[in-house]
Fold these 4 entries.
Entry 1:
Amino acid sequence: MLKKLLLNKTLIGFILFLLGVASDASYVMGVGDGSSFLLLIAGIVLVTIGAFLLVKGANSEGKMDFSAPISASSDQTPITGGQGAFSRNSQLVTEWTKTNEMKDKLRILEISANAEAGGEDQSQS
């Protein structure tokens, strides 16, 4: 029953979308002949409704269950109160600071190694 409803929703959405595109195309082709502006408005409405039904049909088919609990990795500790969140945040800030300091030291070493390699190349020439 559900698949039939989804198929109907998708099929009706596709048909309405195509009718809207055809309506807009006939308006554009007949602009010089004085075609009605209502044809453009009807086409836009049909395209909008058709696209909406297509999206609704596509989203309904593969519903994801977001209520399932997410498994926590081993390095994360569960946070129960405000104090736990504060201590976890402080721990993350200190780890981030150490990581940035190490990255800066490695960058300095890389720059000095490149400078020494560049100096040796110039002295040999």
Entry 2:
Amino acid sequence: MGGFLRSSRLVVGMGLAVSGALSLSSCSTGRDPLDLSTNEALYRPVGYEVQVPTDRPLALLPIADQRGTIPFEASDSAYPVQWMPDAAWARSMPVMVHEVLLRELQNSGLATSVRSVPAPAAEEVLLEIQLLDARSGWEEREYGRRAVASAAFRVVIKDSANGLGSRAILVDETIQQQYFSRVDPHPPLQPQSFGAALRGAVLKALQLLDVSNATRSGLEAPTELPNFDGSEDEPSNPFGSRGTDR
């Protein structure tokens, strides 16, 4: 496959929430109430579907936790933020995000098959995701609070292995989705706010794989990455989005 899509550009999107009072009971589903992979009150599937058929298999490597290696702005103001601790989640963030991505990929048609494996087969296109940011909190304001969240990935896509076992890098991009609610005495809870940010970041990762043509034989990758920060593809509140479900 010819063509490369490699860039150090940071693709950032922002979603504006409709704030409201939420209860932790609304997050609960079974024994893992704060699990992004199993609780659709926190993360509702994007439902991405390809329009152009694919003909190559894909392997997803375990997600590498690289949080803290690159500084990201999770808030756009100087107000203090009360961050949600990682320990509040039912399981580790990389494990939950990995399961979310794997399921979205398997249901999208972005490859003829999608496996989660530490060592891919030579014919499989390789997808490596690094988790760079995963934060959610409440920003303290004079007349209430504002929910803020950030989800960021480094997305690396490598071609199938050649006869010598090496793989060409087709895509190397960093993407971020930010989420902000309105200031309110009862802003959205932190888990839902992060779920909204994660949903936007996952959508951008799926779009990136799609436009790269990495899983389509004989099609070139575009020379520039399209702009994915349009409002039509970003979450308007923790439970919904505009134009992302298919």
Entry 3:
Amino acid sequence: MPDHIDESLLASPLGEERRSPRGLLIGWVMIALVVLIVAVVWLSSGDNTEEAPGGGESTGSERFVGTMVAAETTDTTAALEVVLWPYESDPPILYHPTALPKGWETCRVVEDASKGDRFCDPQDPDRWVQVRVRQARDARYDGLPPVGDDDNGVWVERGATNEVAYRRSGNWIVVRNDDTLPAETLVEIATSIPVVGDFNALYGSYEVPLALEEVTDDDLADLMADFGSEPRVVRGDAEANVYAADASICGFHADGYSVPDFAWMVPQPRLVVASVDQPIVIGYSADKNRAYAVWDQAGYGWRLEGRMTVEEIEAAALALLERIGELPTISS
């Protein structure tokens, strides 16, 4: 280095901690980029749980469409809130629900209740509920986890498919839905079924028991005098059958059972309440062109059937109620 250059001139007059305006600008830009990157990473990897419609929590795997949630979890509709509306099928079958989502309708009815009737959204047939009646001896429903409601339901399946069952007398009422309704909504639909939620209300009052063994064959034959000449009486153990040309009636010992217990003896049962507050179950089979009526009276169950319309057999059952009421009882 030449001697005539002063080394102090080589030092920056700004000092070690000062920078040029251009350097400061670059520095602030770098800091801003770092902060932005950190924020993006934190938001994408942190806990982003949010409140879902209906008060539930989003799992981060849900897809929101309006107020409907299709969650990719074991209960895909857990956050879906569905409002149920009063519903009445035509005719009002005893194992049909009386509450369904608005706009739903009956979309399949079969006479074999074990195969199940179906109720669906006509705008979206994939949204449906199916109701089946299975015999109580079906072991698949034993020992299942309870729903925890007042109607003693059990979960058959719970998850992507929800299926709940209620035992009533000798049958299970089984209600199923595949992945389109919350489990809690399915329970509400199931308990709206008359023979599930209103089971006890279907019982009639017991009169003085009938002394069937003391009733003569002529008196029994007179019960069916309107259905053809010379009705035939066949007696069995604690029962009596009267066969006429156009119809038959069977009086059998109810053994403490009542209408809800043997309503399953007829296809597509629906309830009729007589003027004397006597519940009568009416059924009809289009395949057999036969109508049925079942009721409890004087300690016995009575089952009437014949080639009649629903209206005709209802009238016949009401007339028989009066005639049976005139038969001798144990106390008479």
Entry 4:
Amino acid sequence: MPLMSGEPIWSVGRKWMGNLIPALFSVPVLILALWLYQKQGFSSATWVTLCAFPGVAWVSVGLFGLYANEAMREAMAQRLQRARAIRRDAIVFVGAATPAYRSALDPHEDVGFLIFDPDALEFFGEKLQLTITREQIQAVRLRMNPHSVLGLGGWVSIEGLFGGEPGRFLIESRNRGTLFGNRWDRRRLLARIRAWHESQKESDPSSEEPGPATRRVQ
């Protein structure tokens, strides 16, 4: 469903729906298990239904946890297109967060595009927009987020010196419509960023010893 003009893209409502829709499938299974327990005690039907609950919950989150993801991706693509010309093969749709962000609804603080420029990575989001220069990046690694607990993804952490202080910027692929699809993209995204970083370092030997003044986030 396309978004209305002027409508917030990564809204609280969409965060809620990403939790409520999986609950609509899984919670009735739990309620049925409790009802069977009241009627039959720990019967075989009770045990089967109770054991089915976590499986149904896991599948529901994996399939429906990224509510309206395609519509948000298209809306952000239109914003990016209006802002600048960009090659489609140079961008990846991601959820992103700063380390200080905390939310019970969703680990993603913002959604937008990670842009692979020759000398920097850019994040073009609805609220967050920043540039991380090649010289700033010291490591790129995997880190856990709430999706990791379910085996459905996790962060790719871009780490280095930001404003002269150690820090990180956290991203997770939303290039596909489900968490099941994006969990396989996690390591691909990690490998792509590392390959980009290493290839640029090799092409510019002076980048091996960057000075503090060159490390910046805009």
